[in-house]
Fold each of these.
Amino acid sequence: MESSTLVPVSQFSFLPPKPHNRTRMKRRNFFTTIQCNKMYVPGFGEASPEAKAAKHLHNFFTYIAVRIVNAQLESYNREAHAELMEFLERHSLNDGNKFCADLMRESPRHKTLALRILEVRSAYCKNDFEWDNLKRLASKMVDDHNTRLMRDYVLEVSHEES
């Protein structure tokens, strides 16, 4: 959806200053149309949709980091693996920061696990997560599901009319 707004050109601060000529020209007040190719999303006053998605990704990265650390511990430190599994049974991973904060405060051994999870979460987000692939997959998923829903609706409606 495209929207447009009329804004006086004189309000733009990025216009270069006019050179001073000896003859003064009368300044005209005219308007230009600015095109905005982004949709307005109502109801996101406290945060943009991207900020909300980032929050969910942040919690997802915590989940991924816990799985990575847990798999590592399973192979070389069974005692720490058992402690993390027991902690996971008692605490939700829905809020990644709360999970890590609770883990840090459980005991000194748990604090070490929490710090490792924070380290892995950051490294995974910065180095291993395929951001371009996320965009491609999300766009493809939206297109595929939209097409499937529209096709199903047309088939349903065409059978009702027959």
Note: The helical segments are 49-76, 78-90, 96-106, 108-128, 131-161.
Amino acid sequence: MVGCVQVEDRAVTLSNERNSIERTYELTKYLDHQLKEIKDTYLLYLGPPFSDPDFSPPRPNISSLAVPSAATRVDLWRGLENGARLAQNQRAYSVLLCAVRELARSTLCPYLQSSLLHFCSGLSGLLGSISGLMNALGYTPPLPTDGHAPLTTPALSPRPALNDFTRKVEGFWVLRELQSWLWRSAKDFTRLKKRLRA
């Protein structure tokens, strides 16, 4: 009898884990699709040369938001434990959410500003979904550096005076890095789903 209960409990746990991964994956794919449309609108808003299809400015060396790069070698990224990858995803999206909010604040186009703020709501939902997924899988969501409170979006550091072109380059790279993180996150959640099926 005890064995049957344990089997049923494990089945329920697996079902919850699968559902949590699936919800997080679907939200990630939705945000990726939404971001593609926003990015096209944003580049048109920035104007030439940013709106030129082949334009790709160098990534800024210094950013007041310290936007995390998704350019980690694939073998190193896959070598991390699932919990470590999820924690890095959550930390990255916390910073990127703050960066997108800053883009919305500095945007003069009402339609684009509304789209960016709506996207922020979805990104905030993704952060909550990743936390829920980590809990479902038995991992502890990351804490801030003081170690006392749940992770929240970081406060903006004082921004240095930037010229118009530099601000545009930063905005360009915020959206590019966000797209890279969403793409990689979707891959991570797909691998997690396959692991649970095994």
Note: Helices lie at 2-46, 74-78, 82-106, 110-136, 164-197.
